[in-house]
């Protein structure tokens, strides 16, 4: 097996990659849509079966199953390289029908086209190339997860387990619009605060009421004040609801909080402040509870991860990606879990795209082949 065999074959598979991408983009796979997420998984399993690549499914009762595949030389006991990615999207049922995969002016559009179904397609074809030409000195494992967009509640333990067993992790989230990859990410915590008040007629019996919405308003102001842009700490209350009717003091209110941070040490400090705000009753008679719904940890570049990136960067230069650099992202990803267990990790290796989580999400089709070739060369030389 030569490097040229791998890279030439990947170049010949451009249309096949686009065809598979079209199929999986046109399957709805919102994080809570287990049936749809598993249908996308089944399409990748079909690819593995057609190419003779061993795979298995790790089932989960609530969220989509985890899909595992491996390309290895017989008898190899080397630690594997892990190629990772998620197949769930932020879009609801019916979005693929309303907005199917389309190509315009060299860009592909559709739900999840960049984030991150194209990265999964790339991973699958890179592994297939190695399988076709006899494997790699270090086994290549693929992990296709199901619930990253909601904090990986079912996938986190799987990712951490597979990450600990790996020599290196390449997470194929979309390449940045600049063409760069991601070498650092923020951590994030997604929380729910529920407030109980007391209903009363707001005209005839106002004094007997206790407004949960009033309490939530006080808490929101205090929580948002914890933002510290200089340190990269941001607080956002992105969803609120509550109340019974316009002429009733609100017996219930709730809000959803998004915390992002850079320095792992800041997590405890900010969380303690949020917990104190939630425990404080600004409107006497209210009570509140705080629940963590999902969490990502930061990607902090270690010396080993820096070396992994430099190896990838050198490989990328050889396939024409001469300006590729590492970039920091305020977004969270599963790569934080593997970085946190100590495995060298880089992220954002997928084909280049942008405007994720919006109807304008796009993928640069000409980036598919060189990004696949760069990953393959990095694996070969790792």
From TrEMBL:
Keywords: Hydrolase, Metal-binding, Zinc. It holds the Pfam family Peptidase_M20. Residues 183-285 form the Peptidase M20 dimerisation domain. Transmembrane segments: none annotated. It comes from the Bacteria. Its cofactor is Zn(2+). This is M20 family peptidase.
